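Step 1: inspect the first sequence and its tokens.
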Amino acid sequence: MKIDIQKIIEIAKKAGDAVMKIYSEDFSVEIKADKSPLTEADLASERMIIASLKHSYPSIPILSEEKEDEPYSVRKDWHCIWLVDPLDGTKEFVKRNGEFTVNIGLVKDGLPVLGVVYAPAKNLLYYGDEEGSFKQEGDGPPFRICAKKPSDKLVLVVSRSHFSKETQDLVNELKKDKEVEMITSGSALKLCLVADGTADMYPRLAPTMEWDTAAAHAVVKFAGKNVYDYHTKEVLKYNKENLLNGWFVVR
């Protein structure tokens, strides 16, 4: 089945509108069992995305952060799935710093093949598929992006809210061989900053889930870089029995 990426962009933007409506108001914050925050914006965005995907592509199953997981005994036979994070960077949403995204990714046989990452507060869009990866700022035209080539200085993007001791240890090790500049960002934007050439590398030595990364992984992949498991050095895979990602490096 051919997926119309423009349709997925439209869905992400509508979800972003729902998020921004709540962002502009007072909102309550719940704390989930895993200690992560949950707002009505997460739920409103998810309802809109799931309904739209089911309407347009009813044969493709959906995994989403706030949707109850299907058991692996069922999922293992899914060769094509949507991975959705309706509000990636809820901590950034709560802090009102604008660094949160709507992520919709398509995975086939464990690998990302399409991704849309939309940051509604910044009116910033990234998307990628086999036609390439693109960035669109505001109402300007989309332009093709390409990850930058290595240079003498290593620009590292790191998590604004999840900077671990292990990441600092890696930074210290990298500084032995190269000049290292660090920039910070929230949500899936970190992967996109490698895709568009702003950064050379994004190490994530802390937990994430598959829906956190699938969409932006596609953007990175079709911009000429990839996401690698930190320990095995293999490309990150999806729809695993355990939906928790291992540590990874985007480069």
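Step 2: inspect the second sequence and its tokens, then contrast the two.
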Amino acid sequence: MDEKMKKILSEVKEKIKGVKDLNVLNEIKATYLGKKGVITELASQMKDLDVDARKEFGKALNDIKTGASELFDNLKNKLETEALNKKLENEKIDISLPATKIECGAPSILEKLIEEIEELMISMGYDVVDGPELEEDKYNFEMLNIPKGHPARDAQDTFYIEGEEILLRSQTSPVQVRTMLEGKGEKPIRVICPGKTYRRDDDDATHSHQFMQIEGLLVDKDISLSDLKGTIDVIVKKIFGENIVTRFRPSYYQFTEPSVEVDISCFNCKQEGCNICKHTGWITVAGAGIVHPNVLRMGGYDPKVWSGFAFGFGAERLAMLKYNINDVRVFYNNDLRGTHSFDRKDSE
């Protein structure tokens, strides 16, 4: 029996000699080691042997299985290595060739600008909060000191959804109201509320029925107009440069008292007069003011203890000024040719 097994192992060596194809090798392996292979069928003869002979036969059978498996595995590894080297040689890449230019996307100008302001405000201790775009009248108007029948509502040209109670928010100020209610008049608030707002308007180069607002609210003790001035100054210097000068002009908003318009010195002409600043040397960029006592009271804060300021920027207006864009519709059109007017290094 040993001679028969040695002969089988010699046959295996002879059969695989000169084999260069993995498929052929696998076929030979199945002939000897498969379920009905020559070596496998030898095991069926063990039942006719006595105990001692069976032990000896089993050891010899394992040896031949191990020897044949090693022969097949060694040759398989050799053929696979040769095939891989051949493939690498045929498919090698010349890294000295110029690369294919791939067009890369970039964040939208509005997204980039808003993220810049968010990062700045977070570094100053503010939270970024959001709220529903489909809003209730009481949050959008009434709790901001604009009761029903107030003429200021007409100027908003609101999109009403259900009667006069459900609407598309005309400002992100309702988020500030909801934040005050969550504070329950017990803790300071520092939040910034960027988001979409909606007003009935005819779309043209400077108007849109949908636009982005970036509003901020701070409620604490002993807050003054100088705190607001300092905060606004930091923001506009971040956007337009360290040489920008800020000024406040008296204005009127229902939810702040006193209220101000925020102007910045013209970054284009250095206040000498140009088309951007309409030859005044100043550009209006925001509205702001000290939070009205009625708004604090309706938000759950005692105006005798707490005070605060609020401000609001139009994201599109800031972006149009910063990137010299003269048509607000560029932000919402799908024509990619419009993006070539933006400097890529500012968009990465």
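Step 3: confirm your contrast with the notes below.
The first helix runs from residue 2 to 16. The first strand starts at residue 127 and ends at 128.
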